């Protein structure tokens, strides 16, 4: 019993919003049908060769990094929830459209844009956790978030595989539905947090969190 308490201690006493994010991550990951099956969808359902499918997946990966950078900039400029609402909603719509589309190259492009939208929203999701926590409990909050994703992801691809053979449209629509539930939890139960970045920080332990203005160059 003592060992269980010690294992759970990093996750106790966190802001209630973190637990909402935890549940949202589980639900979102439960519907992770598309990405684990993407290579099979491209080759088996759409008919691309393994080489061509690998090329499209690699191209998507190249675009994910600038998409994340753009998402981080937008999250710091217009707000975390606005970025999450716009790009996650865009991805949800694209997944629904993919579910209504016959397997074709059109579906490939739809899925690429849906993935880009999800990655663009990613930094805003992480920023919510950072804004809601302090250095003392931040690692526990992020660990809980990742745990939620792993719990859902342990089941999601299995469900996707069951749907894949005879119910391919529901692979996309199911992914969109769980993403919508996850998005709704964040929109209705978590307030915008960008204002916290404007608060004056006097605690020296949080000196790295102080707002910095100017140009930063990465080499």
Secondary structure layout plus pairing:
Elements: H1 2-8, H2 16-30, H3 34-45, H4 50-77, H5 80-99, H6 105-132, H7 138-153, H8 156-164, H9 168-189
Helix pairs in contact: 2-7, 2-9, 4-5, 4-6, 5-6, 5-9, 8-9
Can you walk through the features of this model?
There is one protein chain. This protein is an all-alpha fold. 72% of the residues lie in helices and 0% in strands. Residues 215-219 have low confidence and may be disordered. It has helices spanning 2-8, 16-30, 34-45, 50-77, 80-99, 105-132, 138-153, 156-164, 168-189.
Which percent range fits the helix content?
A: over 70%
Question: Beta-strand percentage?
Answer: under 5%
Continuous helix count = 9
| End-to-end separation | 50 Å
- Principal-axis shape equals globular
- Major sheet: size, sense and barrel closure? none
pLDDT averaged over residues: 89
List low-confidence stretches: 215-219
What's the total count of β strands?
0
**Rg, alpha carbons:** 19 Å
> What is the H/E order?
HHHHHHHHH
Q: Helices and strands: which structural class?
A: mainly alpha
Keywords, separated by commas or semicolons:
219 residues; mainly alpha; disordered C terminus
């Amino acid at each position: 019993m003592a060992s269980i308490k010690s294992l759970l201690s990093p996750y106790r006493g966190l802001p209630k919003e973190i637990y909402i994010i935890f549940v949202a991550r589980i639900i979102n990951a439960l519907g992770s049908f598309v990405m684990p099956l993407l290579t099979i969808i491209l080759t088996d359902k759409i008919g691309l060769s393994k080489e061509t499918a690998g090329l499209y997946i690699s191209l998507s990966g190249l675009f994910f990094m600038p998409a994340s950078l753009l998402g981080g900039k937008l999250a710091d400029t217009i707000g975390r929830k606005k970025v999450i609402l716009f790009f996650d909603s865009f991805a949800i719509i694209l997944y629904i459209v993919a579910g209504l589309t016959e397997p074709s190259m059109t579906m490939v492009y739809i899925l690429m844009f849906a993935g880009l939208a999800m990655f663009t929203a990613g930094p805003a999701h992480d920023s919510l956790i950072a804004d809601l926590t302090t250095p003392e409990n931040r690692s526990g909050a992020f660990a809980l978030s990742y745990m939620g994703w792993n719990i859902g992801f342990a089941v999601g691809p299995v469900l996707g595989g069951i749907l894949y053979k005879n119910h391919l449209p529901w692979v996309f629509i199911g992914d969109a539905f769980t993403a919508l539930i996850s998005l709704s939890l964040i929109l209705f139960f978590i307030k915008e947090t960008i204002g916290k970045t404007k608060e004056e920080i006097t605690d020296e332990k949080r000196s790295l969190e102080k707002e910095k203005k100017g140009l930063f160059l990465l080499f």
